[in-house]
Design goal:
The chain is an alpha+beta fold. It has helices at residues 2-30, 84-89, 95-98, 126-129, 173-176, 294-298, 377-383, and strands at 61-62, 70-71, 78-83, 105-107, 136-138, 145-148, 151-152, 162-169, 184-189, 197-204, 210-221, 225-237, 244-256, 267-282, 320-322, 335-337, 344-346, 372-374, 419-434, 439-446. It has a seven-stranded antiparallel beta sheet with strand order 10-11-12-13-14-19-20, with no helix packed on it. A five-stranded mixed beta sheet has the order 3-8-9-6-7.
């Protein structure tokens, strides 16, 4: 009897606790969120999407599907939206960081997963794998169109002023890809918003790299005028000396919704932004040099000839080729740009002459011969008529002995190599809607 009473008490207590927990859970799940007051409500144009509506990694709306703000659940195509929260948590600051994580995308660059020249004699040219903005591949088809607020651009985006990334792909991507069947990769720059917010970030990483960002947003007139200023300094160092990438940018944005024009169901909004930046650097090499040393030791038995006698060499010998060009490493020996032309040229070995210069043709006859070099393995295979050479399946061999040249820690080109980008971009936007956003007109200018 006592034992039964004890069980009854325990059962009653357990039931009470369960009911209390259920009541508490019910209260938690049904509590209504605190509603904003009318003074805090900001009217958004149907031509605008703000990242403040995103919840974590989940975005609610996009412009990528229909060019007006549309709920993602109503967009009938393959559209991925990368939120600012995802960019922060994955530390993705540019295309190379992000596109290795997103669906069906490949990208070149340091840390990328795509070279863009795998079917060539060499893995890739420096132009391809050093260009993460144009050198992408989506769905295994082609490079995507890179957009900035849905305007075609070649400016590399950076997360310091980016609110979200929209990726439009799938069967109908050509409709929204400005002609590319791969679709679009659009970065939306942060607009000025009617909410004060300030953020300063600084980080350090390997090899002495550092990155600092400042993002300031200030409301000057409540729900009417706001400005935004963002700054970036990103100095990246690499294992290969003296490779580096120095990225400095300044971004400003303004939003003005004049109260005099926003009466009743009509709404007028003017937005403007401007960005200037310079990316200076010396990109690292992602592949070892082509091996043109071993053939000289093994196949040519370390043969050397005076240049005057080079005309008598067996020019059909498979490993012999012209000096210069691509016969030294994964790229040209050295390039130079003419100040009066946009094209680049190659630096070749100096003209062969004897010094002091003499009129004696037997000593200074430049037509007697020419410099020769060692051809890469793909050229050798064709000259030697190896089986299948007509299909060009042979790849150039890489230098694998770092004792000959420490390509892990040193850049073969040294300080002779340099690459840079300078840009100025601005966007002006005027939107006018009527009847509580049921009818609208947007005018935009982008340069």
């Amino acid at each position: 009897m006592n034992r039964s009473t004890s069980r009854s008490k325990v059962s009653t207590l357990t039931s009470a606790l369960c009911l209390l927990a259920a009541h508490s859970l019910c209260a938690q799940t049904t509590t209504a969120p605190k509603l904003e007051t009318d003074n805090d409500i900001v009217v958004l144009s149907p031509f605008q999407v703000e990242d403040t509506a995103d919840q974590g990694y989940a975005a609610k709306a996009t412009l990528a599907g229909t060019r007006i703000r549309t709920e993602l659940k109503d967009v009938g195509s393959a559209t991925s939206v990368v939120t600012q929260k995802f960019l922060q948590d994955t530390n993705s600051t540019n295309s190379t960081d992000l596109l290795v994580l997103t669906t069906n995308t490949e990208v070149a660059g340091q840390g990328g997963n795509f070279a863009g020249g795998g079917d060539a004699a060499q893995i890739s040219s420096t132009t391809n794998y050093n260009s993460p903005v144009p050198n992408t591949r989506v769905r295994g088809l082609a490079a995507a169109d890179n957009l900035r607020d849905f305007f075609l651009t070649d400016i590399p985006w950076d997360s310091y002023n980016t609110g979200r990334i929209d990726l439009q792909r799938g069967p109908n991507s050509i409709l929204f890809g400005i002609g590319s069947p791969a679709g679009i990769i659009n970065n939306s720059v942060n607009p000025a918003s009617f909410k004060d917010a300030n953020k300063v970030e600084f980080r350090v990483s390997s090899f002495g790299s550092y990155r600092g960002t400042v993002d300031l947003n200030k409301v000057l007139l409540k729900n009417e005028l706001a400005v935004r200023l963002s700054l970036l300094e990103d100095d990246t160092k690499y294992r290969q000396t003296p490779a580096f990438r120095d990225d400095k940018r300044l971004y400003g944005a303004l939003r003005y919704d004049p109260a005099a024009l926003n009466q009743g169901s009509a709404h007028t909004s003017f937005r403007a932004n401007y960005e200037t930046g310079k990316v200076d650097g010396r990109n690292p090499s992602y592949t070892p040099p082509v091996d043109l040393i071993t053939p000289w030791f093994n196949s040519l038995n370390k043969a050397t000839y005076a240049w005057q006698d080079s005309a008598s060499l067996p020019t059909t010998y498979p490993y012999l080729g012209a000096a210069g060009g691509n016969t030294v490493y994964d790229g040209v020996i050295q390039t130079f740009a003419s100040p009066t032309s946009s094209t680049s040229g190659l630096s070749f070995p100096a003209t062969a002459v004897n010094y002091p210069v003499t009129t004696d043709s037997s000593r200074n006859n430049q037509t007697n011969g020419q410099y020769w070099g060692i051809s890469p393995y793909s050229t050798y295979a064709t000259k030697a008529n190896l089986p299948g050479a007509a299909l060009s399946p042979f790849k150039d061999k890489s230098l694998t002995d770092a004792k000959v040249f420490d390509f892990y820690n040193n850049l073969l080109e040294g300080t002779n190599k340099r690459n840079w980008t300078k840009f100025h971009a601005y966007n002006l936007n005027l939107s006018q809607t009527f009847f509580d956003n049921k009818v609208g007109l947007e005018l935009a200018y982008d340069k």
